[in-house]
Each structure stands twice: as structure tokens, then as C-alpha cells.
Design brief:
Order of helices and strands: EEEHEHEHEHHHHHEHEHHH
Oligomer: single chain
Helix content: 40-55%
Number of helices: 12
Bound molecules: D-malate
Shape: globular
Radius of gyration: 21 Å
CATH superfamily: Alpha/Beta hydrolase fold, catalytic domain
Distance between the termini: 49 Å
CATH architecture: 3-Layer(aba) Sandwich
Strand order of the largest sheet: 1-2-4-3-5-6-7-8
Largest sheet: 8 strands, mixed
Strand content: 15-25%
Number of domains: 1
CATH topology: Rossmann fold
Length: 304
């Protein structure tokens, strides 16, 4: 049985995973994976834009949003990718398309590397196949210390300055407030454990030439964390890929220019699922009613 709606809890491998599930039952499945240190609510506008034609699912990665974590839980991109597969198994989803932003993209790349037969297409947004440089690792370690010392609010204030493009700092006030709220809702323990997981993640650049499904790569024009040059590298190394640079956006391109972001998603998934999209149920009902009326007239004519 499928549960519809927001904030559904699923008990998976001794942990509660929280997710949102919307759209028609028999439509192609799109799974959205959030970035760090955010949660599934970052995908609200994308779910709304796509739910008429696709089954859209966004879940909280363990330790983020409303998904649980315990002291003993190990955080790694590999484990996050395994969680995704367990999650798909629990929901009886054999195949899906993935849309991952930044850390969500690292998880998507790891998942397709280990379970290529489970995915029909990928959208990689503001992400990278490269591992952390020694400088980035050092920075992350300092961040772990600083969160402990200066607290979450200070971390949230500093993060939004880097995540959003300079112009978004004044034009995307509501989005910035929402992102701060997401950061403040994450536990210090989860933030620290995820920062360490990001430091030790493996590269996935060697995987790129082997990806066999269509890939859309999107990047904010002013993304300084995973810049357009990284997106271009990935595009050049994935055979069936399209690259689109989102204007007026930094690292959170889906929030900073959702109109263009959603337009690209719609065009891409329309091409991936050309023949499989669900016809809205009202259209089918109206077609059946018209057919029944026609049949009645034909029968009436034949019985005269
Ligand atoms: C994210 O948005 O997920 C993070 O910026 C990823 C990272 O720091 O590597």
C-alpha cells in the first residue's frame, strides 16, 4: 500500500526515514535528494511543478530534516546511497530517476555506480565528481570546531552567505530564511558527522564515461562551491548529457531561479519518458464516457 502526502515516516533499518510522496500511482518515479545542510523541504517548488505528471518523492537523508540518526549510525556517502536503495525497496520502486543537488548529487553518483540497473536518468545539480582537496578538508575540520564553539546560528549565518549568489542575498529573502531554518533544525552531531563524511568521500569522475542513462547537469552561474567549470568537466565526460547554466543563481540554483530550473526539469523528463507519461485520469474518464455514448448510438442504429 502506498501512503500519499507530506512527512510520511518509514521505519527502515532501525531508523525512521521521513519523506514526501505525491503524484499519480502509475507515473514514472522521480526521487529528489537534498544538499547539505538542508532537507527535503528545499524541493517544494519542484515537487509542485512536476506532480501532475510524475510520482515525485523527496526524502530526508539520515540525520537531516525529520529523518533520525543515532549515536552509532555511521555517516558516509556510501551509506547514504545504500539508504536510498533500501528506501526504494521498501516502497517497491524498482526503477526511478534521481535529481540530486550537491551532496544529493554525490549520493546519486554513488548510487548509480553501485546499482546502475535501478536508475532511468539523473539530474545532477550544483555538484561534483571530484573528492575534497586538502584545503577543503582543512576548512571542513575548522567548521566542525567552529560549530561547537560558536553555535548553530553563527554557522547558519555564514553558510547562507556562501550558498546563495551575492544578488540573491537581497532578492531571495524568504529562501534565505527557509535555508537558515533548515540548518538550525539540524543537530550539531549530524552536521559534524556529515562534514566528516564529505571529507572522506571517494571520487566518481572515473565513473562518468560508464554512465548509460540520460543526464541533465545544471549549475548556478555564480556557484562558487561546485562551479560551472566542474559541471562542464562532468558534461564532457558523460556521453548522454546536457549542460544547462542557471542564470541569477549561486549554489542553490533550484531555490534561486526555480522558474528556469523547473523548466529544464520538465523538458528533460519529457524527453526521458516520451511514451510513458501518465494521461490525467479526467482525460481517460471523459474519453471512456464519449466512447460509451458512441457505442450506445451505434447499437441503437443497429437495432432499428
Ligand atoms: C551541499 O550543498 O550539499 C554542500 O555544499 C556539499 C559540499 O560542501 O561539498
Amino acid at each position: 500500500m502506498r501512503y500519499f502526502g507530506k512527512n510520511i515516516n518509514l521505519f527502515l533499518n532501525n531508523l525512521m526515514v521521513c519523506y514526501t510522496d505525491d503524484g499519480p500511482d502509475d507515473a514514472p518515479v522521480l526521487i529528489f535528494i537534498h544538499g547539505f545542510p538542508l532537507n527535503k523541504s528545499m524541493w517544494k517548488k519542484q515537487l509542485k511543478a512536476l506532480k501532475e505528471q510524475y510520482r515525485v518523492i523527496a526524502y530526508d537523508v539520515r540525520g537531516h530534516g525529520e529523518s533520525e540518526s543515532t549515536d552509532e549510525t555511521t555517516f558516509s556517502i556510501e551509506n547514504f546511497a545504500h539508504d536510498l536503495i533500501y528506501f526504494m525497496d521498501a516502497l517497491k520502486i524498482d526503477k526511478a530517476s534521481l535529481c540530486g543537488l550537491s551532496m544529493g548529487g554525490y549520493i546519486a553518483l554513488n548510487a548509480i555506480e553501485n546499482y546502475p540497473h535501478r536508475f532511468e536518468s539523473l539530474v545532477l545539480c550544483d555538484t561534483s565528481c571530484f573528492p575534497d582537496t586538502p584545503e577543503t578538508i582543512e576548512k571542513r575540520m575548522k567548521t566542525v570546531e567552529s560549530i561547537e564553539k560558536n553555535g548553530l546560528l553563527n554557522y547558519a549565518d555564514n553558510s547562507v552567505k556562501i550558498l546563495f549568489a551575492p544578488q540573491s542575498q537581497t532578492t531571495k529573502v524568504a529562501e534565505i530564511a527557509a535555508v537558515k531554518e533548515m540548518i538550525l533544525a539540524t543537530s550539531i552531531q549530524s552536521l559534524s558527522k556529515t562534514l566528516l563524511a564529505l571529507c572522506v568521500r571517494k571520487e566518481t569522475c572515473t565513473l562518468l564515461p560508464h554512465i548509460q542513462v540520460p543526464v541533465l547537469i545544471m549549475v548556478g552561474e555564480e556557484d562558487t562551491i561546485t562551479p560551472p567549470v566542474t559541471a562542464t568537466y562532468m558534461h564532457e565526460n558523460i556521453k548522454q548529457s546536457i549542460l544547462h547554466v542557471i542564470k541569477h543563481a549561486g549554489h542553490l540554483s533550484n531555490l534561486e531561479n526555480s522558474a528556469d530550473f523547473n523548466k529544464q526539469l520538465k523538458t528533460f523528463f519529457a524527453s526521458v519518458y516520451k511514451d510513458q507519461r501518465t494521461i490525467p485520469s479526467e482525460v481517460i474518464t471523459s474519453f471512456v464516457e464519449q466512447l460509451r455514448d458512441k457505442m450506445k448510438s451505434v447499437i441503437a442504429l443497429l437495432t432499428i
